[in-house]
User: What shape does this take?
Amino acid sequence: MSAGALERVGGVLGLPDTYGRPGLRADVIAGLSLVVVLIPQAMAFSALVGVPPVAGLYSALVSLLVYALLGSSSGLSFGPIAIVSLLSGAAVAPLAGGDVERALALVGLLAVMVGGLHIVLGLLRAGAIVDVISYPVLLGFTAGVGLTIATSQLRDLLGIVASGSDIFVEAIAIVVPLLGDLHPLTAAIGVTSLVLLLVSRAVRPGFPMVLTLAVLAVVASASFGLESRGVRIVGDIPSGFPVPSVPSVGLADAQALAGSALAIAVVGYAQTIAVGKAIAARSRQRIDAAREFRASGVANLASGLFGGFPTAGSLSLSSVLGSAGARSRVALGVAALALSLVLLLLTPVLEPLPRVILAALIMASVVSFIDVGGFLELLRIDRMEGAIAIVTLVASLAVGALPGLALGLGVNLAVHLARRMRPDIVELGRVVGTVIYRNRTRYPSVVADDGAIVRVEGSIDFLDASAVGTQLRRLVAGRPELHWIVLDASGVTEMDATGLRMLADLADGFAAAGVELRLVSLRGPLRDAVVRAGTREVLLDRCYRSSLTEALESVGVDGSHPLRAPAHDERAPDGLH
Assistant: This one.
């Protein structure tokens, strides 16, 4: 192969300039480490979707290969993840009616739809769509999903035979009355496994506890006949590679899954970008949003066509790559090759694996979803945003993950609009000992008896123009001695026709009442908007001044006025610079 061809291959796989044999050795080790964790995790997440374990292996295989070729991060692993798997299962379960083959077809269609949406959104450069999920909504939604996933696995963890539910309160209502019917041996294995996973993560994070448990469980299952003792096992796993096929579904199914596909596309991409950015920050790399959309789109399309389900960037698997020293996306190729060999030769080895081990693995993996510290911190910073997170959490637990997410987004939007309709207007004063003007409630300040300097923060548009006008009129009505108001517009980011008309009417009304209005620090684009709106005569020619000093002078506040000149015995507050 020529040097140019090698360079192109290196670029595709994200190889660093100094790659060489040490880099290849590191990627081989990282890839093998990844597949050790990936196999049981992919099989476990298949249970969340409601499809056979091999579907998770197929999803992992094609996703690894596609992301290795098309992704932009050298340390991100792509495959089945808990949130997307739960949402996928919740979307297809009502349509499948317990038919596994139909569930496979539906979830394949869902993956194709998610992939198609990612490709379209990438072409539209719509990466900002994930910003609609604010941090409080994401915090509450993630915690709700974590609790829901954990609850959904209680049946398998304890060996309880019962129907399941993807809604937390329903799952609890099903499981709690049946706790007396748990299978003792299954419960003992499950609880012990869960404790070992959690303790090893806290005490020795690098120890391969997942592999250790899986190997011990397979050996114990085969040696002691656990299936004959009532412990459910994974069972038959077909050998070989998946054959590509178009999911056998109808137009009505696609219409029924459309909303879920959009939600999963947004949540999955948000997860991928969040993980990619975290890796990029540590490795000083750059995440290409367009490539991530393309890689995720093709990965999901391939997963749907090869018997899998929707996938996304995985934080836990990416952490395995990082801790194992992966240098490039070659590690994903190594993992895909190892997984291929498992599918070809070793699936019989996996068949005795008790399902309870998969349940314990799922429950251990979602513990980190529940960020109690994040809730407490958010409540300290902003109680309203903390309330949004709690509402999203409660809704996700009560009515399901996707309806809870929708409700959280709606509440967040409503709160945002309500805050926009209550703009922040502060009165400024000259800080004692200086000629600096700041919020009079925060600093010892000198103010004028006959006038006021106010600052508006945010926008003055159709949402908040009325509120701005009302607050300014209330200020004038409450202080009959006022004869002038200087409005500092340096914090105003946007004004529309409604806001401009309100200011013009306000200036005329104040003038009729003997109060002069002055505007300062109006940004250039906003002055252009004044001209276009036909309010130049009032707002620019009569009211606008280029500086606060000029505005104050125009209403009779000269250089000797206390508002302009510090007294000789004034002292500035400590810490003011």
The chain has 23 helices and nine strands. Residues 273 and 292 are 8 Å apart (CA to CA). The chain has three domains: 20-246+271-381, 383-420, 424-554. The chain has a mean pLDDT of 88.
